Amino acid sequence: MNIDEILENVRKAFKLTTKHFGNTVTFERALFLGWYCDLKHPCKFCYMSTQKDKIKDPKKARRKLESILAEAILMKRIGWKLEFISGGYGYSPKEINDIAEMVAYVQKCKQYLNVGVVDLSSINLDVIEGVVGAVETVSKDRDWICSGKPLDKIKDNLLKAKELGLKTGITIILGLGEKEEDIDKLLNLIEELDLDRITFYSLNPQKGTIFENKPSVTTIEYMNWVSNVRLNFPKIKIITGVWVDKIPMISPLILSGSNVITKFPVFSVFGTKKAHWIEKEILSTGRELIGTFTDIEVLKGEKVLEKTPYIEEEINISKENIRKVEELKDKIDEKINSYISKVLKKVVQ
């Protein structure tokens, strides 16, 4: 497809997004549980694959519960939805369930899980909105790149989630050797699984992996994938992630059909020049931004956002997990203050 055809698709995709989702763009943020992957064969692009042999005690690579809950509280405060709870390889179904319950409880809303193929019968589905499968790539080398994540098992898990009344989605990382003709493979997969959402990321090459010196996806290539999904599935939620070195990609991705921007390291960027630049990129498309990356008063809890993407609902969890949250209150508050202090050291005055 030549560039004129891609840009024509982008124009159509932008109109379709407006028709079905209105004029707003939001931020989201994956909530990671830790830095250890217990897959025998971690994905070949992943930072965790470079750390696996260095971590002698996997439990020490887990985040503390108060840190997870503090981040969940702050994300709601600044109007960022949690994209999903992730990084759960090495956690038992009960541990995943307990964390999901507590995160949903402090946020007062249901959560998405992206924690591998999990036994959904062990999860309190009253706190789960949906399940995401880490497909990662539809390139011909997928079985080699992601040998620890068999596609058939991911598909089975997502179809089971659908049967249980949950929403479903997948993640795709662009820059792993995919070709333009692979777009059709992705479109077929979305249709087969009847997905509600898709998250795209651009590869952030990690030192120590085979992709360390590989180029990532170009802006026009990224736009082509996003606009094709929007044109073929007008009502699907499209989440696009870029790293802080690719901020100029944001506005083209929104124009191509993206509803949500994700991936940024919140507390090291919030309030900085890059954060202001990111907001400007979004607003330059004519969209309204819900949530903030720059308002320190909101972050500190001194001001409340007029609009957020959150719809609060009653969350029922075990008494044991309610008690855990209450017992951790002081530690959670301490961690919240620690995150805010980290931001204030870097904020643009």
From TrEMBL:
Sorted UniProt keywords: 4Fe-4S, Iron, Iron-sulfur, Metal-binding, S-adenosyl-L-methionine
UniProt cross-references to InterPro entries, sorted A to Z: Aldolase_TIM (IPR013785), Biotin_synth/BioAB (IPR002684), Elp3/MiaA/NifB-like_rSAM (IPR006638), rSAM (IPR007197), rSAM_sf (IPR058240)
Residue ranges of the TM segments: none
Record SUPFAM superfamilies: Radical SAM enzymes
Annotated Pfam families: Radical_SAM (PF04055)
Gene3D superfamilies given in the database record: Aldolase class I (3.20.20.70)
Any GO MF annotation of the entry: 4 iron, 4 sulfur cluster binding
Ranges of residues in domain Radical SAM core: 20-245
Any Gene Ontology biological process: biotin biosynthetic process
Name by which UniProt lists this protein: Radical SAM domain protein
